[in-house]
Design a protein that fits this description.
Length: about 80
């Protein structure tokens, strides 16, 4: 599992690369004013598929990351 994040101008982009089996992931420490993250999955079987936005509560979000995939999450915050 590889992870990177970029923030600036009120926008947040998170990238989660899973090189192994599918697994559940909890993202913690998100800005308090982020309520949802737009999500896109790219894998061997899904070239670019937007999935249901992730709810963010208490600065955390949970998601299932498919096997051998890249998940991109996008959000907005006034904190950066």
């Amino acid at each position: 599992m590889l992870f990177t994040a970029f923030a600036g101008g009120g926008a947040l982009a998170l990238h989660v690369a899973n090189l192994g089996a599918g697994r559940d992931v909890t993202l913690d420490g998100l800005a308090g004013d982020i309520r949802a993250l737009k999500a896109v999955v790219t894998s061997e079987t899904d070239p670019f598929r937007e999935i249901t936005p992730l709810a963010v509560a208490g600065g955390a979000a949970r998601l299932r990351v498919p096997a051998r995939s890249l998940v991109t999450l996008l959000g907005q915050s006034q904190d950066f």
